[in-house]
Amino acid sequence: MAKGIMIVAEQRDGALRKVSFELASTARKLADQTGDEVSAILLGSGIEGLAAELGKFGVDKVFVGDNAALEPYITEAHAQVTAKIIKDNDPAIVLFGASVQGKDLSARVAAKLAGGLATDCTDVKIDGGKFVAIRPMYAGKCFGEIIFNTAPAMASLRPNVFPAVENAKAGAVTKVDVAVDAQKSKVLEVQKDTSGKVDLTEANIIVSGGRGMKGPDEYKILEELADVLKGTVGASRAAVDAGWRPQKDQVGQTGKVVSPNLYIACGISGAIQHLAGMSSSKCIVAINKDAEAPIFAKADFGVVDDLFKVVPELTVACKKLLA
Amino acid sequence: MNIIACVKQVPDTEAQIKVKADGSGIDDSQIKWVMNPYDEFGVEEALKLKEKNGGDVTIISVGPARAMETIRTALAMGADKGIHISDPALDNADAFVTASALAAAIKGIPYDIIFCGQRAIDDDSGQVGAMLAELLGLPQLTIVTKLDFAGSSVKVIRPIEGAQLSIETSLPCVVTAQKGLNEPRYASLPGIMKAKKKPVDVKNAAALGVATDVKAKVAKFAPPPARAAGKIICGDDAAQKAQELARCLREEAKVI
Ligand SMILES: Cc1cc2nc3c(=O)[nH]c(=O)nc-3n(C[C@H](O)[C@H](O)[C@H](O)COP(=O)(O)OP(=O)(O)OC[C@H]3O[C@@H](n4cnc5c(N)ncnc54)[C@H](O)[C@@H]3O)c2cc1C
To answer: Residue B221: left (phi > 0), alpha (psi -120 to 50), or beta?
Structure first.
């Protein structure tokens, strides 16, 4: 019988991604309810040392696949090894991160196992002994409760939603044999974003600007506020389509879905497609001169005023408070 | 070149989604249906490849009878023919069943490259492209914003968190399209007229030999949790409002 909870950890350049700790903590919480063990899959090259870090966040046992062919990440190689470890160990539940890599990998692994997968979940629970995953659908306009007809039940968890809590367990390393087929795909180049900013999907604080910003240079005031708050700047589609901000900054139904602790929307009206991408933020602030703008219906705090006056003052006020 | 583009019919992004009272699904009586926006990027890229390199574009969709409109839209944009996989047994298909149906249809025809949208904006699963690649034994390139075709291989750009990857893979392969890949064209009037006469093959699950039992099931739909009413920050001028906002964020919401 399938038993235990397995997470698929994600590392890049020899460091675990934050979502890996969120997975470990979530798995630990579920396992403590069912009296099960938490195991982890960790793949890459020269990464055995990271197993102990997973242990700190509640993982009992880490299956380490160490092979040069697994670095950098190539979907087919990682999927082959991941699916084999899952098959050999028969867990009841497998959790992935809903990062770009985690989504790419989880769907391929689910197909290999002919199993069910729930993407980008914002809650998971054990209900009557069965695993249930809760996820936004229709861009958060409704939520679905997903149940699974096959084992293992697989889910990817939205980054930044589940808490990472230290809870030391053994994190004992089991090395696994990782025979990998020759690959058809090759990573030619990795071009790193040099801004030093956290990606929107992983940011705790987002300062976002829309058409109300009037032009590309005006984003400087948002950058300054974001710097003080250690946040990342985002944008509406109107701002991206106008060429003021790069595509990767777009928040919304056809952009990134984000769930920071704080989302500050400046000069954004709150079109349904924009709300779809940010309404799972924990605290929403709207700064807009139009008191009727739909964004205020979603906002925890609203300021009806000219953003060009409010934002610089907010930067000053925050600087003072945080000093 | 034989190019395939998979499309799905979904509610328009403007659509209000109402959950049925018993939570068994969504009330789709008021919905305007459109081609999934990410699939539009896939169709556009397929057409661009065809225009440059010759060949033909086949559109495949799994969906109820109304999904034929979406196939016709793609044909009106310039695709050559369609396959419509339509079967009530597929109405609640999960990603695995959908990918299995697509794979079964595609196995019977020649192909060099297959496009899907990176996700459909109804169920937001983002699984079908990768599953299809696995079921056909092909490499996958998901969430692609740039594609260069070089005869027997393609080179693509994939944005990931904090970086951009440049990846090369041999054909055939599956590519899932992300916004930024191109600007989808509109169907022209002559295109719409011509599309009516283009061939569309209609197939059911049995004809394709696809098992329709789902692996992951939406047991219950629910509206999003209600948000508590917000607070409008008052003050004599922008500076006062900004100070009060900063105080609220720190003391009440405790987010800074
Ligand atoms: C298929 C499809 C997909 C889409 N996907 C997305 C998506 O992913 N993300 C997205 O964001 N949009 C998306 N959209 C677009 C969406 O419908 C809106 O057009 C867009 O979000 C509007 O952006 P905005 O709020 O910046 O601009 P507007 O709606 O023009 O709002 C500008 C706001 O700025 C305010 N303003 C102006 N000047 C000031 C000032 N000085 N001080 C304070 N406030 C000021 C105005 O009062 C107004 O409310 C999509 C649309 C479609 C059809």
So the answer is: beta
In chain B, residues 136-165 whose CB comes closer than 8 Å to chain A = 139-143, 145, 155, 158-165
Q: How far apart are CA B195 and CA B189, in angstroms?
A: 10
Q: State how far the alpha carbon of A5 is from the alpha carbons of A23, A90, A323, B90, B229, in Å.
A: 10, 9, 43, 31, 38
Q: Tell me: do B173 and B134 sit in the same domain.
A: yes
Residue A61, strand partner residues: A39, A172
Residues of A in contact with B130 (CB under 8 A): 75, 104, 107-108, 111
* CATH value at residue A103: 3.40.50.620
* Residue in chain A nearest B183 by alpha carbon: A241
Shared-domain flag, residues A20 and A127: yes
- The pTM score is 0.96
User: Which of A218, A268, A305 best tests ligand 1's pocket when mutated (most atoms within 8 Å of CB)?
Assistant: A268
pLDDT of residue A178: 83
CATH of the domain at B67: 3.40.50.620
Summarize pLDDT for A68-123 with one digit per residue, the tens: 999 999 999 999 999 999 999 999 999 999 999 999 999 999 999 999 999 999 99
Give the distance between the most distant pair of CA atoms in chain A.
Answer: 63
Q: How far apart are CA A183 and CA A204, in angstroms?
A: 37
d(CA B13, CA B101): 26
**Cα–Cα distance measured from residue A28 to residue A167, given in angstroms and rounded to the nearest whole number:** 8
- Looking at the structure, tell me whether residues B148 and B242 fall in a common domain: no
Contacts of B15 in chain A (CB under 8 A): 138, 141
- Which residues 224-243 in chain B show a CB within 8 A of chain A? 224-225, 227-228, 230-233, 237-239, 241-243
Nearest to B124 among A139, A304, A317 (CB): A139
Question: How far off is chain B from A76, nearest CA to CA, in Å?
Answer: 7
Give the CA dihedral A51, A53, A54, A56, nearest 10 degrees.
130
For the sheet with B173-177, list strands across it. B140-144, B173-177, B113-117, B2-6, B56-62, B81-85, B200-203
| CATH at A240 | 3.40.50.1220
**Helix, strand, coil percent content, chain B, rounded in steps of 5:** 30, 30, 40
3-state secondary structure of B221: strand
Query: Are B224 and A279 inside 8 Å of each other by CB?
Result: yes
- Tell me, yes or no, whether A191 lies in a domain: no
The string of pLDDT tens digits covering residues B88-146 is 999 999 999 999 999 999 998 999 999 999 999 999 999 999 999 999 999 999 999 99
Cβ-proximal residues to A85 (8 Å cutoff; 6+ apart), any chain: A6, A41, A63, A65, A176
Partner residue opposite A317 with nearest CB, options B94, B143, B243 = B243
| Closest Cβ–Cβ partner in A149, A253, A285 for B121 | A253
- Please tell me whether residues A164 and A204 are part of one structural domain: no
